[in-house]
Structures are given as C-alpha cells and as structure tokens.
Amino acid sequence: MSNELLEIVLLSLRVSGVALLISSLTGIPVGAFLGLRRFTGRRLLVALMYTGMGFPPVVIGLFVYLLLSNSNPLSRLDLPFLPALFTPEAMILAQSIIAFPLVAGFSMAAVMAVDPQVRLQVRSLGATERQTVLAILSEARLGVLVSVIAGFGGIISEVGAVMLVGGNIAGRTRVLTTAIVLETRKGNFEMALALGFVLLGLAFIANLVMLRLQGRSIEE
Amino acid sequence: MNTPVYRIRQLLKAYNGRRVLQIEHLDIQRGEAFAIVGPSGAGKSTLLRLLNFLELPTAGKIYFEATEFSATQEVPVEIRRRVTTVFQRPMLLNRSVWANVHYGLGLRGQHNATERTLAALEKVGLDSLKHQPARTLSGGEAQRVALARAMVLEPDVLLLDEPTANLDPYNISLIEKTVQGLNHEHNTSLVFVTHNIFQARRLAQRVALLLDGQIIEVASVEDFFENPRDPRTAAFVNGETVY
Ligand SMILES: Nc1ncnc2c1ncn2[C@@H]1O[C@H](COP(=O)(O)OP(=O)(O)OP(=O)(O)O)[C@@H](O)[C@H]1O
Ligand SMILES: [Mg+2]
After folding, report:
1. Which residue among A67, A211, B8, B232 has the highest number of C-beta atoms inside a 10 angstrom radius?
2. What is the pLDDT of residues B84-133, one digit of tens each?
3. How far apart are CA A170 and CA A179, in angstroms?
4. Whose CA is closest to B121, among B109, B108, B137, B107?
C-alpha cells in the first residue's frame, strides 16, 4: 500500500514539476516581454493572458483531450511532439498549459512593478538589451518566484484535466488528486485521507513559501 | 580642451508632438566641466538622457566624437559604454553595495575587477559598507555608491543630474570633490545639471541656461554670473542665488 502511495506522490511531483519547468521557461520570458515592451496588440495579449489565469482547468483538459484523441485530424499526422492520450506526457502538456498564464501573468506584474528608472539606469551603466531585461528580472526576482509557486499551486491540486487526459490508470497515470477521487468512490476513506493529507502538505508548503516571499517583497 | 566631445546640431526632442527640447548648435569640449541650469521642466534631464543615448532624438543629430546619433541612427554599445549618468535618485539595485559598484564592470565581462571596485568605494569613503544591502543605505551613502558605480567604469563623459539635491553639506562636498578629481586627474568630461548656482560656480568652466527647451545663453562661468548677455540669464542668476 505505502509503496503504491509513494509511486503516486512521485508521479504527481514529476508531472507537475516538469509542467512547471516548461511553463516557467516559457512564461517568465513572455511575462517579461509583455511587461517591458509596448507594441500594438499587447493589450489583447494581456487580456488573453488574464483570461487564461482564470480559465477552468477542466476545459483546458477537454481541449487537450480533443487535440490528442484519434478523432482529431492532427493526430493522424503523427506529430512527434504530441504525446499519446492517457500518458504522463499528456498530463504534463495539460498542466503546462494551465500553469503558463499564471506564471506569465504574475511575472508580468512583477516586472511592471520595478521602477522604470531602473531600466534607464542600467542602460546608462552600459547594459545591452538582453542585460537590461536580466537586470529587471533580477530586481523582480521575488515576484517572479511567486509566479512560479502560483503556477505550482494551480496544477498540483488540479483534478479535472489530469483525469481527462491521463485517465487515472493505476501505476501509469494515477496522481494524488485522481487517486483521491477513486479511493473515495470505492469507500477507501483511510487511503483517500492519507492521499489528501499528502496533497494538503504539498500545497501548504507551496503556499507557505509564497506567503513568506510575498511578505519579504513587500518589506523590501 | 578644443576638441569637442559632443556636437549638437538642430536637435529636437518631442513627446507626443510636444516640443520639449530644441538646440540648434552646441559643442561640449573634451575634458570640460559643463553646467546646465534652468527652471523645472526646462528639459535639462531630457538633454542628459539624449547625451547618454538613452532615448532617440526626434530630429537632428548629436555627434559623439565621430559617431552620429539621430532618430534613425543608434549608437553601438561599445561607444555608449564610454558615457554614464548619475541620476538624482541613486537607483541602486537590490543587491549589496559591492555588487552595485561592480555591476557595470560585470556587464563588460570584467568579472574579476575586485580591486577597481574596492578602490572606487574607497574614493567615496564607503569601503567599510561593501557587504551591506544597498537598500539599507542612507540617502547620502546611496548617492555616493551611485557615484562610485559610475566612476569605476572610468567613463570619458560623466553626466550628473542634480547629483547632490537633498544632501547635507558633508555629502555635497564629498561628491563635488570626487567629481572634480575625475575632471582634473582623468580629464573626464562632466556635464551636470544643478539647481544650485553656487555649485555651478564651484565646478563648472562653462554654464548654459536652458529655458523652455531652448538654450538662452552659454558662457564661461565668470561671464555667466558677472556679465550675462541675456536679461533672462541675469534674472535667473539673481532670482536663484538664494537657493
Ligand atoms: N517620457 C516623457 N514623456 C512625456 N513627457 C516628458 C517625458 N519626459 C519628460 N517629459 C516632459 O518634458 C519636459 C522637460 O522635462 P525634464 O525632465 O527634462 O525637465 P527638467 O528640466 O529636468 O526639470 P526638473 O528640474 O524638474 O528636473 C517636461 O515638461 C516633462 O513633462
Ligand atoms: Mg530633471
């Protein structure tokens, strides 16, 4: 039993961890870009991103499901970067999409909160365009970290999307949230509670870190 | 002293169609200390941003030695790195004092310039604070760190935008002496904006009065204060001496 639980916890962490890595590597640069550049269409992109931040994850799960399912003409093309349904990779894809607007949106806000004079100052000291962006991200580092943790919180506790695209297959795609649903349905409340506490613990640690960082960035 | 470091020609800067700066002709010589005075909103900071190539002119040109800077012609980064600004607010990065002073050297790939960094901090008397987080410094200390951070780069031109506003006499004199040392010993060209007429007299060789984005008078420091040609200069000098 505890072996099974460990497997579930590890898979949850792997899926959400990889998804978080992907959404951070894409979301932080996009957030920085939206925060620092003025261009036509920016407002539309920002509005889309805000919508994404509040988008029901289960609907994203549905979209990913349709994208990966056989009924989709795309799937017949056998695109190498599209994973098969009911695999951890499918869950990673869905979670990456869910976390991306959270990371990008909070990063954008963090970057925009940096005094615009910093940009001039850094450029005046000889920074290239790239070095300027890095300096501003570094000034916004606590806010950027908060964005990553917000992304993690958004996906580790998510159930609908991973259920749809992962299928909750024992030993393959069963993660904490889907296992809790299943064990509760089966009447295995002890197991469901144990899983629930692990999930709570993970979410709590993530939130604790976030609160601490937010507090510090306010003090600073 | 007779080679211009800057040659400004038909320079125009406008924001949203509003003309903020218009200078037909102005040369700033290599190694000179050049003061810009004028009322609030005259365009002094705007001129410094243009001299540091931080914003593009709307029209006209600034030549930095042989390099042209205009609306369609950016300045390459190697040239841009020979000029730096100390702003009125020190704008330190949220790092240690040492990391702030070392920052510009790091941008230039000089990651091991420990001694230069330390020497610059010593010049402003703050080597003992090198490990302190910059955000915990007092106003005067912060401005001295900002000066050290600019000095360590050994710029050919140092631009200063009211560097001593809101500082106490001790910090003012320390900053003035340091800046003067750069000008005398390293032949660093200084262009500084000040509201303090006495400071302009102490530091500058030439002074320009900027009014509504236009240069009213440029003169040697003696002529500017003793024999101003333009009545507006005379009025400004008299009106502001109380400052
Ligand atoms: N980025 C900008 N966008 C629009 N207007 C600007 C911008 N920067 C400056 N201005 C305007 O240009 C004019 C000149 O501003 P500038 O900051 O150069 O004045 P200043 O002489 O430095 O004044 P002060 O002594 O108060 O610092 C002002 O009217 C200001 O509102
Ligand atoms: Mg100003």
Report:
1. B8
2. 999 999 999 999 999 999 999 999 999 888 999 999 999 999 999 999 99
3. 9
4. B137
Q: Which of A117, A123, A125 to mutate to test the interface with B (most CBs of B within 10 A)?
A: A125
To 5 degrees, how large is the angle CA A51–CA A53–CA A59?
75
- In chain A, DSSP assigns E strands to none
Tally the domains of chain A: 1
Pairing of strands B67-70, B214-220: unpaired
Tokens standing for residue B59:
């029209």
CATH of the domain at A61: 1.10.3720.10
What the block records as the tokens of A208 is 């604790």
The model's pTM is 0.89
| Ordered DSSP codes for A3-45 | HHHHHHHHHHHHHHHHHHHHHHHHHHHHHHHHHH---TTHHHH
Rounded distance, CA B97 to CA B14, Å? 37
Range of the domain at A131: 3-219
Atom of ligand 1 nearest to the CA of B213: 14
Using CB atoms, which residue from B52, B77, B93 is nearest to A128? B77
